[in-house]
Amino acid sequence: MLYLSGIIITFFLSLLLISKKNKSLADKILAAWLICTGFHLTVFYVHTSGNYVHFPYLLGMEIGMPLLQGPFLFLYTLAVTQSRRLTARSLLHFLPFVVVLGLLVPFFSLPLTDKIYVYQHDGAGYENLVEGVLITLSISGVVYIILSYLVLRRHSKRIEQEFSNTERINLNWLRYLIYGTAVIWIVILAGLHDLYIFGTVVLYMFFLGFFGIRQVGVFSNKSLMSPVNDTLPAPEAGIAPPAEQPVLIAEKILPPLSAKTGEEKTEKIKYQHSSLNETEGLKLYERLQLLMSRQQLFKSPELTLGDLAQELQLHPNVLSQVINTYAGKSFYDYINDLRIEEFKTIVGQPDNKQYTFLALAFECGFNSKTAFNRNFKKATGLSPTQYINQLNTAVDSDSVTGQ
Q1: pLDDT value at position 81?
Q2: Nearest-angstrom CA–CA distance, 96 and 104
Q3: Where is the HTH araC/xylS-type domain (predicted)?
Q4: Are residues 159 and 25 in the same domain?
């Protein structure tokens, strides 16, 4: 009953994705992934229930299917975290699965009675092939889980270079996919019986269904994540000045990109740190500090690197380089540290005693209690309450000493 329920929920989730309007590439990959998983569960259910003698044409189909899991996870992670399209070369990730199918052609060509005989005698005559597939899928699972995790980690760091507030950029869905797949592979590598392996898969499908339906954008038409561009914006995106204005400092440091600029050239320009010398960099950093001091743009909850770059008339990548080099922080940490310093300033003012910590945090640019507490702890090593208690203790000590 457990496996049958897993089959139903898996195909139901795939149906939700197929019927979804304006499907993204990630949606299509996830739908194909779920269909393959549902089919694999179906074949296993037929086998473990003993009904394979009635459906012998399904025998052997499940042997190579675990080799699909890693590539689907990796390609889905790429599709969600990167704006560029996947190429035909991406299909090469499924080559091991195709090779296994090719090696199984002799088995598929057997009469149905011979297929049943092979299964009833623990794969007699195909032991080496099965052993080779097990080794291959173990390596495949570990490699693709690591690759997917690295892609997600790189994406998380890229987000911190572009956004001051990441609360609306929910990466939990991808984390759960990667961690859940890792748990399944741990069960496989532990050498547990197939009943435990597929039982774990079914529980995983239940979890994905529960969390995915609640998660905005997975099985609905809303955006799963705020987009983060992999490439530089073209000058006409709002960075270049009108003709009557002076040339931007950014254009003196980085050449403007044409519409035909290739990805390789873009990446070269993006990371060409030598184009920004120390004198220019320090001047830009001083301009940044002055702007923050006077206008306190960090108080805008949705401030992005692009917004700040426009205020300074800089290319976003130049600004990011300046912050990383001279502040020694990511854009995310730089802005939130300013918010923390502003909170520390206003929380001690007598006029603000009537307000809660959270109200003051919102005033400083935070948009959630979680983000405020996390960043405050990261910056000071203390919780807001601990910090205030220490501040009050210091004030009382000064009062006693003054008396």
Answers
A1: 84
A2: 12
A3: 286-390
A4: yes
pLDDT band of 34, cuts 50, 70, 90: very high
**Does residue 329 contact residue 323 with C-beta atoms inside 8 Å?**
yes
Identify how many contiguous H helices and E strands the chain contains and give both numbers. Answer: 18, 0
Q: Answer yes or no: pTM beyond 0.90.
A: no
Q: Within this chain, do residues 380 and 243 fall inside the same structural domain, yes or no?
A: no
Backbone angles phi, psi at 225, to 5 degrees: -145, 150
Considering the domain architecture, whether residues 43 and 175 belong to the same structural domain is answered as yes
- Print burial letters for 330-339: b (CB count within 10 Å at least 16), e (below 16): bbbbbbbbbb
**Mean pLDDT within 375-382:** 89
333 within some domain: no
Rounded Cα gap, residues 159 and 229, in angstroms: 9
Q: Does some domain include residue 77?
A: yes
pLDDT at 254: 34
Q: Sorting pLDDT into bands at 50, 70 and 90, what band is 400?
A: very low
Q: How high is the mean pLDDT of the chain?
A: 78
pLDDT in tens, 277-307: 788 888 999 999 999 999 999 998 888 888 8
Q: Rounded to whole angstroms, how far apart are CA atoms 373 and 357?
A: 10
* Distance, first Cα to last Cα, the chain: 78
The SS3 of residue 304 is strand
Question: Residue 207 CB: number of other CB atoms within 10 A?
Answer: 12
- Residue 21 gets the label, from left (phi > 0), alpha (psi -120 to 50) or beta, of beta
**Residue 398 exposed, middle or buried by CB count within 10 Å (0-12, 13-18, 19+):** exposed
User: What's the domain range around 265?
Assistant: 232-328
Q: pLDDT tens digits, residue range 313-333?
A: 888 888 888 998 898 988 889
Structure tokens at 82: 């990167």
- Cβ atoms of 165 and 371 within 8 Å: the answer is yes
Q: How many domains does the chain have?
A: 3
Token readout for 385 is 């309450």
Residues 120, 22 within the same domain: yes
- 126 and 50 part of one domain: yes
Whether 218 contacts 224, CB under 8 Å = yes
Q: Is residue 220 part of a domain?
A: no
